[in-house]
Amino acid sequence: MAELTRKEVIELLAVVGGPDAGARLSGVDLSGLDLRGLNFQNADLRRAKLAGATLAWANLRQTCLVGADLNHADLSAADLTRADLTNATLNDAILVRASLTEAILHAVDAVGAECRQADLTEARLITADFSSADLSQARLVRARASRAHLSGADLVDAVATYADLSDANADLADFSRADLSHVFMQRASLLEANLTWANMRDANLSEAILLRANLTSADCSRATLRGAQFGPAILRDTNFTQASLRDSDLPEAAWPYIVLVETTMPDGRIYTDARC
Question: Is 0.85 surpassed by the pTM of this model?
Answer without folding.
Answer: yes
